[in-house]
Amino acid sequence: MKKFSIISLGILASLQLVNAQTISSKKWSDLFSYNNVIAMKEDNGKIVAAAENGLFYYTISTGEITKLSKANGLHEIKITAFDYNPQTKVGLIGYQNGSLDVVTPDGVTYVVDIPIATGYNGSKKINHISITGDKAVVSVGYGVSIFDLKKKEFNDSAFFLTAGVYQASNEAVLFGNKVYSVTNTGLKTHEMNTTFPVFTTWVTEMPGNFTHIDSESVLTFSSPTTSYIYNNGISTPIGQTFTNVHDVVVNTNNIIVTDKARIYSFNTNGTAGTVSSFGEECNTATTVGGRVYGGTILSGIKNETNNTFKPDGPYLNYAYKLSLYDNNQILVSSGGREARFNTAINNPKNPGFYYFNGMEWIYSSYFVGSTTSFNVLDAVLDPASPDDVFFTNYTLTTGRGLYKMKYNPSSKDFDFVKYYQLSPNLVFYRPVGFVSDDQNNLFASIAYTGDVNAGGQATGIASYDRATDGFIIKSTSSSSGAAQKPLYYENMLWIPTPRLNNLLVYDYKKTPSITDDVDYKLDSGDGLPSNAGGSLSIAIDKSGDAWIGTDSGLRILSNAATAIKEANPKAEPIVIEQNGLGEELFRDLQILQIETDAGDHKWVSIDGGGVYYLSADGQQTIKHFTKENSPLPTNSITDIKVDRKTGKVYFASYDGIVVYQGDVADVTSGFGNVLVYPNPVVYSNFKGKVTIKGLAEKTNIRITDVAGNVVHSAVARGGYYEWDLNNMRGTRVASGIYFVLMTNEDGSDKATAKIAVVN
C-alpha cells in the first residue's frame, strides 16, 4: 500500500537562510499539484523528483512519498531546474525568478544573489542545474555560473556576450575539468581556469542548435532530433532519429533519451537497448534497478506498468475560486479574467475544475483532450443534489455558458449531463459565478445581458428552474456590464460590479417570477470611493455590516440589508490611527477578496499586497501574510475561504493553493475545547505570544499567579486571545505557573487553564 506523509526529506531539523526569513511553520500546508515532474534523481532505491511547486521523495520498496514545498521549508514556487548529489545528500533548486534553494540534511538555504551581467535585462530563470561533487553549474539566460555548494556562494561566471547580445546556456555540465554548455548556436566548452569568465576564450566544439546535455561515465548532448556521445573532441550521433527530445540523462551504465512519450535506453557506447512508452508526454526519465521511470507532465512519476507515484493534489496549480463543503469536499475553478475583469484568460492547458471528495483529488476526463475552450470562473455543488456540479464557462468562443455534470463515485469521474447555452452571440451573456439561497435555489451572475442592440451592458441573473432544467435570465437596471460572484444575504443577491463604480443588490422576492423583482445600487454618491473603477468583493459579517472591496479601497455599509433599501444609504471607510493621524484603511488599494471567520475577524486580499487578517472592527491588523514572509505563492490571492468548523483558511491563486490553520474555529457564546500553546513557554525556544484558543465569542480573562494575584486581565473577542506574557506594569512575568480564569459574556459558562513560564 502506498504511504503518504508530509515529511521534508528528513532535512527540516533547522532552516538556514540567506537574505530571507523563515516563512514556513506547522500551521501551513499546501494543495499544490505534483503532476508535472521537471527533473528526477535516484538515491539508493529512492527517487527525488522536482515538480512545479515542490520536491517529492518516492521510496520504491515501501511506496512512501514525502514532500517539501514552500509550506514546509522551501522559499519559492515555480521550480525550473533541479539536481541532487546522492553522495553528499545535497540538492539545488532553481526558480523562475532566478533564486536558488540549497537543500541539505541540515536545512534549506535561500540564495537570492545570483550574478547578473551588467546591462543584462533578460529572464533570470534558472534554465538548468548540474551538480558534480561540491560544484554546480547553473545555466541562465546570460550564460553559466559556478556555484560552490559547501560555501553556498557563487564562484566564476561566464557571460555569453557577442556583439552586444547575450546568449543563453540551455544546459551545462562539468565533465573532467571542463564546462560543456549547449546553446542555440553550438556546443561550447571551457576549462575551469582563470580565463573561464572571458567568453571570447570559449571554444565552439560543434555548431548547431542543442538543447540538452548530461554526463557521468560519458558525456551526451542532443538537438531536438539527434543525440550525440562526445569523446575526446569527437561527437558521434546515436543511431536513432527522434521526434522531439525532451531530456537526456546519463547513469552509470546507460543513456536515457526522453522523446515525448517514448523513453529510449542505450548503453554508454550508444548501442540501443529498451524502448518504453508511457502513453503520455514525459519531461524526463531515469532507470532504477534496471527499470525505467518517467517523469510525466500530467501524472507525476510513472513506471513501465503505468502505475503513478506522487503526492495527491489537484490536476494543475491554476486556481481562481474555491467552494468548501461538508466532509472536507472542495471544488476549485481554474479560470480567470484580465483587462478590468473583462477578458477571459487564455489557458492552453484548458484545465476546467478540480474536485476533492474528502479523501482524494478527482479530475474529470471530460476536460482531457477537449477541443472546447474552458475558462471556468466558478464550480459549485447543486445544494439540492450534491452529486451534481454546475460550472460557468466564461469565454468569447463556442462553448460559453453554464454546464451540469454528475459525479460517478464508482469510476471516480464526472459524467457530462447538460450544456446550457445562454446566447449564440459570442460577446454577450458571459456567466461568472454561482450562489444558492436558504431554499436551495441556484443563481448565476451574468455579465453583459440586456438588449444586444443597445450594447448589452446590463448585469444579469440566471435563475435555475428545476422543473424545466433550464435557466431564466433576468437583466437588472445596472449598466456596468461586468459582474462578480454573488453573495446571498437576507433574501437578496449582492453582486460586485468591477467595471462600474457601484455595487448591485438584487431582491428576487423569494419567488420565480421576475415581475416583482427589485434591484438596488450603491455608488460613489453613497460613499463608494470617488476614484474607484468598480467593486470587486463583498462579505457580510455577524453584525450585518457589508464589507465592500473596490479597486480603490474599502467601504463598510452598516446594517446593510436595511440600509440598501433606504433613499440615501451611506458606506463609510475605516479610519485607523497612524502616527497620531487618522488614515483610511486600504486607501486606493485593489481589494480582491474579503472573508470572515467564525470569530468575525476579516481576511482581506490586496492585489499585489498579500493578505491581511484584521480584528472584527478592522482597527487592528493581527497578521499580514505576503509571498516574502509566508508560504503564500503570490501576493495576489484570488480567493479566500474559511472552514469555520476547523478554522482552516484556504488561499487560492493562479500559482496554487495553500492552507493556514487558523486559531478561530466554531465560535459560539460558550467555550469550546480550550487550548493554550506553546505550553510550557520556554524563553530560549520561543519569544512570541501565547495563544489561548477555543474561547467564547466574548470572553473575560483574568490571569493570576499561584498566590492568586491578578497579573493580567483582558476581554477577548472572536474565540481566541494572545498574551504577550507581560504583567499589568508592562514587564514580563517571572518564571512560574499561571492560572487563566475565563467566563463568557453573561457568566453562564466558565473555563480554566494553566500556563508554565520558564524565563
Question: In the CATH hierarchy, what is the class of the domain at 675-757?
Answer: Mainly Beta
Poorly predicted runs are 1-21
Give, in spatial order, the strands making up the sheet with the most strands. Answer: 63-69-68-65-66
How many beta-strand elements?
69
The N- and C-terminal alpha carbons lie at a distance of 47 Å
Overall 3D shape: globular
Based on the structure given, which CATH architecture of the domain at 675-757 is correct?
Answer: Sandwich
Signal peptide: 1-20
Domain PorZ N-terminal beta-propeller: 49-194
InterPro entries: PorZ_N (IPR048954), WD40/YVTN_repeat-like_dom_sf (IPR015943)
Protein name: PorZ N-terminal beta-propeller domain-containing protein
What does this structure look like?
It is a single chain. Helices cover 1% and strands 48% of the residues. It has 759 residues and is mainly β. It has a domain at 675-757: Immunoglobulin-like (Sandwich). It has a five-stranded mixed beta sheet, with no helix packed on it. A four-stranded antiparallel beta sheet has the order 1-61-60-59, with no helix packed on it. The protein is globular, with a radius of gyration of 29 Å.
Q: How is this structure best summarized?
A:
By secondary structure, the protein is an all-beta fold. It has 1 helix and 69 strands. The radius of gyration is 29 Å and the shape is globular.
